[in-house]
Prior knowledge:
By secondary structure, the chain is an alpha/beta fold.
Amino acid sequence: MFTKTAREIIRSVKVAGKPLSIHCEVQHIPRFRITLKNFLSQHKKRYGYAPILYCLTPVNEPYVEGFFGRVNGDLDKQLEKAYLDLQRNGYSIQLHVHLTFKSNLLSLKQKKEVISNAYKWMRDVGLHPTELVLGWWCNEKGMENIGSQLNLRLVKKDEYRVLHDHQLLDLK
Length: 172
Ligand SMILES: [Zn+2]
């Protein structure tokens, strides 16, 4: 799925001069929570900033189960706890939503509904996202509007280097 190793992506930050961001998709699994927190504090010490965290919400439970296996317990509660803990530690929690791999499978209305529900979930648990990254960079027509209706800036693919939280175990 990934053409570069996690180490190559981190090293390339220096070369490209772009900040690193992390897409969080498995923070309901304890060992990935620990690995992420360790990585963030090491990265901050070394590079002087903490990467922004673009985080999935429970609206993407089917995606999460499809890619990472059955969720053990209540995903809502697990993600809420994990993200609030990261926020308390000063990290920026932003919104990450996977719609469909083929963009024409959902209507614009359906896409808006999924994004709105994800945004609402974050607000309801006490998170305050201002940016949105769509899964697989499906930034097709109309998505920017949906973002701005929710006061979310749609992030483009070339703004950040990206690592996924499930790649961080590879660094060991
Ligand atoms: Zn993703």
